[in-house]
Design a protein that fits this description.
346 residues, alpha/beta, QueA-like, globular, 9-stranded mixed sheet, 27% strand, Thrombin, subunit H, 2 domains, 6-stranded antiparallel β-barrel
Length: 346
Amino acid sequence: MEKKEWKKSDFYFDLPRELIAQDPLEDRCASRLLVLQKDTGALRHRVFHEIIDYLNPGDCLVLNNTKVIPARLMGVRADTGAAVEVLLLKRKENDIWETLVKPGKKARPGMELVFGDGLLRAKVLEIVEEGSRLIQFCYDGIFEEVLDRLGEMPLPPYITHKLQDKNRYQTVYARYEGSAAAPTAGLHFTEKLLEAIEKKGVEIAYVTLHVGLGTFRPVKTENILEHHMHSEFYQITAEAAGKINRAKESGHRVICVGTTSCRTIESAADENGRVQECCGNTEIFIYPGYRFRVLDALITNFHLPESTLVMLVSALAGREQVLHAYEEAVREKYRFFSFGDAMFVI
């Protein structure tokens, strides 16, 4: 697809609110699966556990093993007692975090906050890019233990139901804490399904990208090139890089589970599509016209209209085909967003 000035409205589709999934299914891999053949635009309706039928020996499945922290804190202002909500985005150093604060306008430097009747206290240090706040926390003991006691899972704002089981907003392979949101395409996998996939001869490579502010920031500029992607930390081990490179070299596919895994390996690849062991921060923004260096296929959920995630999927399969697939998903009443159904672009 030719590069052009893409507008935000180019990625709009009409989504009935009742299709936004409010609760996860009891069986993770019982979600529906819409298979999109990117070369032809052909669509097939399947069930997620049937994804194994589309995976071949020698393929490499790339999973993001980040773990969501209970990053949503409900507290009060120390001076007025007014309610305040803090969302932890990224640890900057020791007890200083980059956060989103609601209500934001009154969260000025010097303001003190109290959580859990004083178990956790905080002070706003400064206002940084796009209105985020740097906050320093004060507590007794171990921060992670205090957070586990007081924090809530940071479900996206379009999910209004309370999550009964915290683990349902974690993948079964979540390992390294640091995300403000789950890599939701991975929520469909069970340990049993992953075992069956490995038994078939598919390599599984685990990478890490801590999902941050970009997940919560809508595209506000009509010219999407003016949109600023927030920086997120990623890491690829030598083992994972080796598996990905072997698949490419032997003519097999690299299949990413989720847009975060995709952004990780594309950030770490050189011009020849070879992935290196590395860690760092990425602001990569993938939209139509992007040439993928490593990724061949993508397993992903259904995303918000006009979001950077729809733009990424459109870069792989073409905007018109993706929007057609989304129209089909709406017509067939697929479930959308974090706890919704999945799409496999092959």
